[in-house]
Each structure stands twice: as structure tokens, then as C-alpha cells.
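Tutorial handout. Part one gives the primary structure; part two gives the three-dimensional structure as C-alpha cells.
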Amino acid sequence: EVQLVESGGGLVQPGGSLRLSCAASGFTFSSYAMNWVRQAPGKGPEWVSTINSGGGSTSYADSVKGRFTISRDNAKNTLYLQMNSLKPEDTAVYYCTKTLGSTYGGSWGQGTQVIVSS
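Part two.
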């Protein structure tokens, strides 16, 4: 039932920007906190950011703070991640996740690849 479909990834130069989107369906989107999580090849998942159900409270990993901005449009059932000043170490598959209880891993999308390279 729950579907999360990420899009917007791609290949960008260091210092560039990307805006990721996550289209949600199969649940009441506006009732749930949402997250972005990323995973580099061969590595475990890394939490990136969380936004509360109403969009008024956000939090970020130290590694992306000041560069990334999480937002949501509850009327469109869509979650966003604006990524600026991208670095090679941001290279990963980025996943949109639906919060389950106190964790970010309740439901995952298929992911969208971000490659930051010259």
C-alpha cells in the first residue's frame, strides 16, 4: 500500500545543486514525519534529515547542515530535499522514508542516485 518514489538524482559537479523529490501515496502523508536517508556503495545507511508532519520542525546530520534543506508540500503528498554546495562525499543513493515510531526506517522508497564528481 505505502509507496514512496524518489526522483531528481543525477550526476553533478562539486559545488553544484540538486533537488530531490519523493512522491508519497498509500497513507495519510500529512500525519507522518518524513526523512531522507542515504547509502553510499558498500556502506550502511546514513540518516540525513527529518521533517515533522506539519513541516515546521526540521533536523539535519552535521555533515549536511547548512547545505541541505528538507521541505514538504502536504497538499501534493511530496517531500523534497534541496541540496546545495554538493561534495563528492555526498555521492550515494538517497532514500525517502516514512517514520515508524521513533525510527526513520518504517518504509523506504526505491532510492535515487546522486553522483558528485568532476
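Part three, for discussion. The chain is about 0% helix and 55% strand. The chain has a mean pLDDT of 96.
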